[in-house]
């Protein structure tokens, strides 16, 4: 299956600004992207990047492992750009995956659970109502990533009579947006993103209720 | 399997104070407890409460469904109290479960995945480094719920040569401590806790990055 990974270099991971500088956030976002690409490949699928403008990965290419990945450029917002990808369904394409680029805890096993969950649409909900990963097999389904997209996708599917499978995965539910999410990468990550954080001096801070992070 | 659910009525769910009053927090904590008890039963196990002092559930009893549940009173802190439960292992008891009382998203299917995960210790990590549920089959294993307990439990197991299985479950990873967690209950809960929140006027607030809650 072709698995499309939307990615943008425009002000990446802005909510991580309390912990990482702008160049660091860009580098970290690329490392996470590389991890997701590797997971898609290791799960037996074909990764594809979906970007709003061509990105020169330059010398980071080799490091993050995204060189040679097929890339679609679409300058529209996330929702119409993904909907254009879904338009491939029915044209000889039976299913397509959409996986967010910041799922630093994703593993091939977790992704395989999503693809096995069944339904005309398989969903991996993200924390806080997001939609972190989709497998779409029904051409009439369209996305809306604004707001509580998980709820909206379920409601839209129910209205259209489209069957939905939901995967119960902490790894796929954990998108990395906020400083506290970095603790999850340190605790559970087994890709390059974890090593990148360690090298950047980001470490667990167990002084509060839930574990957070600080920089050493 | 006996599944022990630690619970206390002392200042329950204090971090929910921005959204719920103290009596509301106590009532909500009890409703979540009732949901967890029901999940344990529906998964085919025997629930048991572990409390620091006897609790009079009084007229809430019927409503939350914990009447008649075997109860152990141990006035020590969580860690030694749970360790005393684990001392039953080897005395004709092959395995024991420890499940937190605030897992309002738990389902029988998620709990069954934990019990099937294998290892001398099965762990369901919680967000922020916690340990939300355990199945312990090895008498030498002991708990430490302070700080980043998931990391500490894994390290202790590795040091002692105890094998560990980890379940990848968003439902078991989501303990309900903070206002943002209430959004997860509204989005994914299918027990009484969700209905309680709706009745209390807590609703999704999709105005920010991740969805939060507000009171209507």
TrEMBL record, chains A, B:
Domain of life of the native organism: Archaea
Top-tier EC class: transferase
InterPro entries: CofC, Nucleotide-diphossugar_trans
Gene Ontology biological process: F420-0 metabolic process
Catalytic reactions of this protein: (2S)-2-phospholactate + GTP + H(+) = (2S)-lactyl-2-diphospho-5'-guanosine + diphosphate
Nucleotide-binding in keyword set: yes
Biological pathway: Cofactor biosynthesis; coenzyme F420 biosynthesis
Keyword Aminoacyl-tRNA synthetase: no
GO molecular function, one term: GTP binding
Alphabetical UniProt keywords: GTP-binding, Nucleotide-binding, Nucleotidyltransferase, Transferase
EC code(s) of this entry: 2.7.7.68
Signal peptide range: none
NCBIfam families: F420_cofC
Recorded family membership: Belongs to the CofC family.
UniProt xrefs under HAMAP family: CofC (MF_02114)
Quaternary structure note: Homodimer.
Protein purpose: Guanylyltransferase that catalyzes the activation of (2S)-2-phospholactate (2-PL) as (2S)-lactyl-2-diphospho-5'-guanosine, via the condensation of 2-PL with GTP. It is involved in the biosynthesis of coenzyme F420, a hydride carrier cofactor.
The protein's name in its UniProt record: 2-phospho-L-lactate guanylyltransferase
Species of origin: Halobellus salinus
Lineage: Archaea, Methanobacteriati, Methanobacteriota, Stenosarchaea group, Halobacteria
